[in-house]
Amino acid sequence: MFRRTSVFRRASRSVYAALAAVVVLLAAVVLLAGSAASAEPPVADRSESGDLPGFSHGTVAVEGTTLHYVRGGSGPPLVLLHGWPETWRAWAKIMPSLAQDHTVIAFDLPGLGDSTIPAGGYDKVTTAKRIREGVHKLGFSQVSLLAHDVGSLVAYPYARDYPTEVVRMAALATPLSGFGLEELYGVSFHLGLNQAAAPVPERLIDNDDVSTYLGFLFSNTRYPDRIDQAAYFQAYASPARRTAGYGYYRAFAGDAADNRANADKRLRMPVLAMGAEFSFGLVVANSFRQVGDDVRGVVAPDSGHWIAEENTAFLSACAKLFFGPQGVPAPSPELANCVA
Hints:
- It is a single chain.
- The chain has about 350 residues and is an alpha/beta fold.
- It has two domains: about 1-40; about 45-340, Rossmann fold, CATH 3.40.50.1820.
- Helix content is about 40%, strand content about 15%.
- It has 13 helices and nine strands.
- It has helices at about 1-40, 95-100, 125-135, 150-160, 190-195, 200-205, 210-220, 230-235, 240-250, 250-260, 285-290, 305-310, 310-320; strands spanning about 45-50, 55-60, 65-75, 75-80, 105, 145-150, 165-170, 270-275, 295-300.
- It has a nine-stranded mixed β-sheet with strand order 1-2-3-5-4-6-7-8-9, with helices on both faces.
- The radius of gyration is 25 Å and the shape is globular.
- The N and C termini lie far apart (about 95 Å).
């Protein structure tokens, strides 16, 4: 009896020792795997974009979120920032043209499109920092910015706070918070609704209401049929995505205070401020002239708010001039202020 017990104890000790060795080995493997993962480049999920030949999708991890982007072309980097309620697809029609001369990087704003949803940080300073971190991790330290709507509100603190990193900036279809945007709150009810504290818009706009709500906003423009509305209905079909979108609006008051407090940091780089014939006109330029020294006001003809989709040809021609080499003359008077 005693001998069997002793043998059993010796065997048990051998088994425990073996198990301990296995645990140590597994821990080492995990640590090595973690080290290897941390050494990996921050870009993942690169796959060819089937609906946009020559472009690929990717993701890059930044503080608080992971940014999805679509990239193509070669040359000086040009970062595209969309507005609400859209995604990177807002630029799809113009990206092939821009990619002829630039490395085009169209981000989904944090929380929107295929970017992951951060717990907070929808103010435009934080968002600009996240986009800038993504830009750096993609290997670029100096870029130009082309932005629309809420994206323009993000582009401004990017250019303001990191002036040596932004060569040129184009802001489309919105005045700045603190410098004119508040005066337009009565233009559309969504500006107030989206800013309402949770859970007001969350409960008023259910999944079944998305196409009605967003479709109404898209319908009040010059050419609603030129907008891929179905793609945006799908992009905001998730309640969490809609809340992320509202987050950008709920930050407007804080954005305005920050913009006014830092207005002395004037933009020195050239700024293209574009409104549309049927939306805002020169209001955008008048706003940015309050914070910039070299602001060129442009009005996109025969277009409503969604310029990249409604008048792609004009925006493409203007962007090629503005982000292109100096000395290229404008082919028409409408493009005169687009010249580099």
